[in-house]
Automatic annotation (TrEMBL):
SUPFAM superfamilies: YjgF-like. Keywords: Amino-acid biosynthesis, Aromatic amino acid biosynthesis, Isomerase. It comes from the Bacteria. GO terms for molecular function: chorismate mutase activity. GO terms for biological process: amino acid biosynthetic process; aromatic amino acid family biosynthetic process; chorismate metabolic process. This is chorismate mutase. It comes from Treponema peruense. Its EC number is 5.4.99.5. It catalyses: chorismate = prephenate.
């Protein structure tokens, strides 16, 4: 990993509570993170997901395995857990933390899509 260091890239999106909607939302979010940050599969340490309690039709890690993100994710460590419930939290939200090696001078680009743009408007795509 010469000239690389470890980075954590955040992202979030929203989804309807169907397996297909969750798969598509995870695919879009992860594809954007991987592409915008020039992530290579062999440099990823792990991908961690959380989901709000109102999403229960598909595990986001399983969704990533079923998705076409442009990277082979079959050998990447994936982990998913429920989001801690907080009164007033945004509904139907999937969050991700991608831990990966990137070039030392990389400028990490978080990805916030769909209804999750309100969580971090300064990082929302298109802003």
């Amino acid at each position: 990993m010469k000239d690389k260091r470890l980075f954590a890239i955040r992202g979030a999106t929203t989804s309807e509570n169907t397996a297909e909607s969750i798969r598509l939302a995870v695919e879009e979010m992860c594809r954007e993170i991987f592409m915008l940050n020039s992530v290579k599969a062999q440099d990823i340490v792990s991908v961690q997901f959380t989901m709000t309690p109102d999403l229960d039709e598909l595990n986001p890690a399983a969704a990533l395995r079923k998705s076409d993100t442009g990277l082979d994710t079959s050998k990447i460590a994936l982990f998913a857990m429920p989001e801690l419930y907080i009164k007033g939290m945004p509904p139907k939200t999937i969050r991700v933390l991608v831990t990966t090696y990137l070039d030392c001078d990389a400028a990490v680009k978080p990805v916030y899509l769909n209804g999750a743009k309100s969580l971090r408007p300064e990082f929302a795509l298109g802003n």
